[in-house]
Amino acid sequence: MNHAAAAESLDLASLGGSLIDGGWRAAEERFPTLDPSTGAKLAEVALGRGPEVDAAVAAARAAFEGPWSQMGPGRRREALARLSELTAAAEKDLAQVEALDVGTPVGVARKLTVRAAAKSLSYYASWIDKLYGDVVPVATAQPILDFTLREPVGVVAAIVPWNTPLLFVGSKLGPALACGNTVVVKPSEIAPLSILRWSALCAGAGIPPGVVNVVPGDGETGRLLASHPGVDLVSFTGGSETGPRVAAAAAGKRIALELGGKSPALVFADADLDKAAMAVALGVFGLSGQACAASSRLLVEASVHDALLERIVEVARALAPGDPLDPATSLGPLASERQLRRVEGHVARARTDGARLVTGGERPGGELAGGWFFSPTVFDGVDPGAALAREEVFGPVLAVLSFRDEEEAVALANATSFGLAAGVFARDVSRVLGLARRLRAGTVWVNGYGQIPNQAPFGGVRGSGFGREGGREALETYTQVKNVLIEL
Ligand code: NAD
Fold this sequence. Notes:
Layout: H1 3-9, E1 18-20, E2 23-25, E3 30-34, E4 41-46, H2 50-65, H3 67-70, H4 72-89, H5 91-101, H6 106-125, E5 135-136, E6 144-152, E7 155-159, H7 165-178, E8 182-186, H8 193-199, H9 201-204, E9 212-214, H10 219-226, E10 233-237, H11 242-249, E11 254-258, E12 264-267, H12 273-285, E13 297-301, H13 305-318, H14 337-352, E14 356-359, E15 377-380, H15 387-390, E16 397-403, H16 406-413, E17 421-425, H17 429-438, E18 443-446, E19 465-466, H18 473-477, E20 479-487
Parallel strand pairs: 7-8, 7-10, 8-9, 10-11, 12-13, 12-17, 13-16, 15-16, 17-18
Antiparallel strand pairs: 1-2, 3-4, 5-6, 6-20, 11-19, 14-15
Helix pairs in contact: 4-6, 5-6, 5-8, 6-7, 10-11, 12-13
Bound molecules: nicotinamide-adenine-dinucleotide.
Residues 159-163, 186, 188-189, 218-219, 222-223, 226, 237-240, 242, 245-246, 249, 258-261, 292, 392, 394, 420, 460 line the site of nicotinamide-adenine-dinucleotide (NAD).
């Protein structure tokens, strides 16, 4: 693993400032960002506080009222399309930065975060000349022309987590910029480098200074940004405990919260078990389990329990963690030591709660011993009331529970405070359609798991948040409607 050489050739140590009004700005305090594969320091990054947040919001406001609005939809579309092309052209480097800073394997990062971000920017660029208002048929005796305008909200604070930083660039900045807003991004303190690196592309795309600003920092930086009076909309993705704190800080503003999950995958006896096993295993072990919609609870019909579990364990054992810079690797480390400790804590608790460890449950040794790696882990016979059946682990740990019939399956599936996603594996069409309605989740995947197309809305219900990213629905998040009434 020659990570030091890779970090040097990518010049990560130079990514230390905040991007404000098109220029790099140092801060009084700095924080280190670490390589989760080795624990080595990659860079010292500016810790945004009041002065940086104030300056970034002021720059975003000035750009919103000035050059970005004046550019008009045609030129904004060209700039966003160009930004998509530049993102795609930088795929290799950006994926390597995520491999080093987040621990995402390069092959996965190329496709899942960088390419997805480029596609999302391009998808939303193509919406720019399709944002229609309505003519409202007002029923009065007097002749009236009433119509609506769909307008940008203003300055958007985009506060994001560390698991897939560039994915959020696409899913938040794509629609925010397409709708004519300006943005201040607050990357996670665990992995700020890929967004900083990416943000340098904005100038080359013809995006005016101040339209995209990046203020790295910690939770306090996020709080300062969310509560800033110059911010009009807070778009937050992160943990379910943090969401309410962000909502409190942002009181009086528009907010969208994309939070955590404990998503169930329901497998019925008539399902294609090979397909279900692969989908569930990749759904929970992919990104080393650090995916909001991870299929972390497997609910399986008792009659196919053993056959399915055998297949899943086979996939889990084949998915050995490795060096994220190696294109052949499909699982990297957890992104931080804190996350590793959290996963280990959940595993220890599951054991004392009486669940049966079927595979994994430990850190790999050898060359990986110095990093925050954890083996794909499966616990069977998990009690529905146990922490492992209810709490988000955000690590490669699958909780397996059995059910006897559809009613029990639905009751188990809905017995959490979350509601991000659910998977159903079954061939019976009427059962599938019924379950799609009854499962409390923002997304239901059927006979597959985890696809999030740009064109489709994605987001949670209940403890998993509200607001939608993706598709036409995101345009509603990032615009407001003005009604114009003309007496004729
Ligand atoms: P986190 O909530 O700890 O942090 C997310 C971001 O919020 C970070 O940038 C952090 O610095 C900032 N923050 C922390 N406290 C804040 C405060 N009081 N005010 C404003 N900002 C604050 O989450 P994390 O550990 O970085 O990410 C993991 C979580 O994110 C998991 O729960 C996961 O499910 C969730 N997630 C959800 C989605 C989704 O689309 N629903 C996607 C990815 C991750």
